[in-house]
TrEMBL record:
The gene is nnrD. NCBIfam families: yjeF_cterm. Residues 8-280 form the YjeF C-terminal domain. HAMAP family: NADHX_dehydratase. The lineage of its organism: Bacteria, Pseudomonadati, Bacteroidota, Flavobacteriia, Flavobacteriales. (6S)-NADPHX binds at residues 43, 106, 157, 221. Homotetramer. This is ADP-dependent (S)-NAD(P)H-hydrate dehydratase. Its cofactor is Mg(2+).
Amino acid sequence: MDNLIKIDKKTVLERFHPIDKYTHKGIQGHALIVGGSYGKIGAPLLSAKACLKSGAGLVTAYIPQCGYDILQTGIPEVMVETDDYPTHITAITTEANIRAVGLGIGMGQHQETQQAVFHFLKLNTLPLVLDADGINIMSENKEWLEFLPAQTIVTPHRKELERLIGLWDDEADKMKKVISFSETYDLVVVLKGAPTRIVYKNNVFENTTGNQSLATAGSGDVLTGIITGLLAQSYDPDAAAIVGVYIHGLTADLALPELGYHAFVASDIIANLGKAFSTLYE
Ligand SMILES: NC(=O)C1=CN([C@@H]2O[C@H](COP(=O)(O)OP(=O)(O)OC[C@H]3O[C@@H](n4cnc5c(N)ncnc54)[C@H](OP(=O)(O)O)[C@@H]3O)[C@@H](O)[C@H]2O)[C@@H](O)CC1
Ligand SMILES: Nc1ncnc2c1ncn2[C@@H]1O[C@H](COP(=O)(O)OP(=O)(O)O)[C@@H](O)[C@H]1O
Ligand SMILES: [Mg+2]
């Protein structure tokens, strides 16, 4: 592919914003993580934690009631707003002054949740990351793609992509279809995999960090949190995606000597975020 740009340290440093000495949490931005359902509260917990540990000043998780104690105990730094319903999300509202939203992880596709997404999208103008069931719900309601703000970031794995754009013949056909999809709806598409590629405005970026340790439950939920955290810090959406996938992959490379390929879990991505971001200051 002739327009392929490698995501390496140089590409990332061109887009990275070091944290200013005189910043405060208001400047660092307030992110909203929307997701979770009964049995899948771990997803927003991991995502919200990763979001905060990627530099967002404040993070609120919007989850169904059943996740309240879990979130508040799992990460006391994160604020929580709950839906009126116990097991899944039925409305998406917040009192907070939010700068970026990550939506869909562990959320399920209950009919009421789909309606909640519809009403949210009709009013929302905030920068947005859509993952997991956020993507699956769009696949079930393709006419809603029109409501997405410009440069919304979508982060499908292979199956989620197939639901969203349909099957492709081969790799070249897939990239052609994704580029066209990205242009039609003005989306930053993060094609998760080995390697992860990012498609935006006819440019294709390919990540150089990460390894098979990342093939573990919740690693995509963590990526959503990282990218949402960067968006909350006012990164351009394509830059947030590029810096996010690089840092996410780098955590697995840095942890490899200690954890190997087997013992690495999604929480280890979060545990290694500090080391990964620090390499950008060296
Ligand atoms: N602790 C929690 O709360 C967790 C909650 N989670 C939440 O669960 C929900 C369901 O998400 P999900 O991705 O597991 O299900 P789904 O979209 O049906 O995909 C399954 C099929 O797709 C494929 N496939 C999957 N990954 C692929 C990849 N990387 N690369 C390529 N292919 C891949 C694979 O298909 P196969 O290869 O077998 O044909 C597989 O059978 C979602 O809301 C999520 O946030 C999870 O994050 C886990 C931790
Ligand atoms: N073999 C691999 N090599 C590199 N990265 C991988 C590999 N397998 C999975 N990943 C990464 O792990 C993440 C998996 O995301 P996803 O499938 O959404 O997980 P989950 O839904 O369980 O959170 C993606 O960022 C993907 O690129
Ligand atoms: Mg996922």
